[in-house]
């Protein structure tokens, strides 16, 4: 994995309070993690770092689109995604990111790299099943959909006149009141 320098937030020189960092994320970001699920990506990310006396709070908010292939048809489409993540950053004796909500960084550290958190947050924002919106509303025209339609088993319903005589006697009970 490349060290994504732009995702380092140098907090040591920042005053106490909230600081906002804006990022535009495209597919090269995901490729640096060797993540090949997206054809393309256009995501806006806002990171708000709240620097307090003895800790920091990081809030990541992202929204945009990722271009993925439909699981049913293979047709590429832009899938809207949105996600957010809150992280408490504390100082300790050694680095520890085992807790999903608390990051412990060593005393004396002067910056934090948020790339891994951004990557996980966005990768998890994509639903496991990706279905082209045109499949759901019937507007997508594709050879694969036409073929699926053609191969679909046809339902044949025939009203039969031959009924079981045992039921006929039961039906009489209902009508003979």
- What is the gyration radius calculated from CA atoms? 28 Å
- Number of helical elements: 5
Choose one word for the global shape: elongated
Which class do the helix and strand fractions yield? alpha+beta
Give, in spatial order, the strands making up the sheet with the most strands.
2-3-4-5-6
Number of strands: 7
The share of residues in helices is 10-25%
What are the segments in which pLDDT stays under 50 over at least 5 consecutive residues? Answer: none
Largest sheet: 5 strands, mixed
Question: What is the average of the pLDDT values?
Answer: 86
Distance between the termini: 81 Å
Beta content comes to 35-45%
* H-E order: EEHEEEEEHHHH
Task: Summarize the structure in words.
This protein is an alpha+beta fold and 177 residues long. The chain contains five helices and seven strands; from the N terminus they run ββαβββββαααα. The protein has helices at 27-31, 115-125, 133-137, 143-151, 165-175; strands at residues 8-10, 17-26, 40-51, 55-69, 76-92, 102-106, 111-113. The strands form two sheets. The chain has a five-stranded mixed β-sheet. It has a two-stranded antiparallel ribbon with strand order 1-7. Strand 4 (55-69) and strand 5 form a beta hairpin. It is elongated and about 90 Å long. The mean pLDDT is 86.
């Amino acid at each position: 994995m490349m060290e994504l320098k732009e995702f380092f937030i140098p907090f040591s020189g920042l005053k106490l309070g909230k600081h906002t960092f804006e990022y535009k994320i495209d597919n090269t970001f995901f490729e640096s993690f060797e993540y090949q699920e997206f054809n393309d990506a256009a995501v806006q990310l806002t990171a708000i770092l709240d620097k307090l006396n003895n800790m920091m709070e990081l809030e990541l908010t992202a929204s945009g689109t990722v271009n993925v292939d439909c699981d049913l048809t293979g047709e590429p489409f832009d899938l809207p995604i949105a996600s957010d993540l809150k992280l408490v950053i504390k100082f300790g004796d050694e680095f520890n990111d085992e807790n999903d909500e608390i990051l412990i960084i060593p005393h004396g550290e002067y910056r934090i790299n948020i790339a891994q958190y951004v990557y996980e947050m966005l990768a998890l924002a994509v639903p496991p099943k990706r279905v082209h919106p045109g499949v759901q509303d019937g507007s997508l025209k594709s050879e694969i959909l036409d073929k699926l339609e053609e191969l679909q088993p046809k339902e044949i319903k025939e009203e039969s006149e031959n009924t079981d005589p045992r039921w006929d006697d039961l039906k009489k009970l209902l009508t003979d009141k």
